[in-house]
Design brief:
Elements lengths: L1 H11 L10 E6 L3 E7 L5 H5 L4 H11 L8 E7 L3
Length: 81
């Protein structure tokens, strides 16, 4: 789980203009490990990309990582307005 957090931060950090405002919170539920990503309001467009292509690419990489146990990983990009 710690490695997956570092992976998300490593992918997202070069994409934003304010890397010090990146917050990644992990919420564990019955079926999922939810990673809630919040960035500066100016950077939300950079993370989502045109037609959501960047967000989809990030999710593809994160979802391909094997986790221990039956829980699935979910990455939520939260608009921090």
């Amino acid at each position: 789980m710690k490695d997956l957090q570092e992976l998300v931060l490593m992918i997202v950090s070069p994409l934003v203009t304010k890397p010090d405002e990146i917050h990644l919170e992990v919420v564990e539920s019955e079926d999922f490990l939810e990673y809630n990503l919040t960035v500066a309001p100016d950077d939300i467009g950079r993370i989502i990309g045109k037609q959501g292509r960047v967000a989809k690419a990030i999710r593809t990489i994160v979802y391909s990582v094997r986790t221990n146990g039956p829980k699935k990983v979910r990455l939520n990009i939260i608009d921090g307005k």
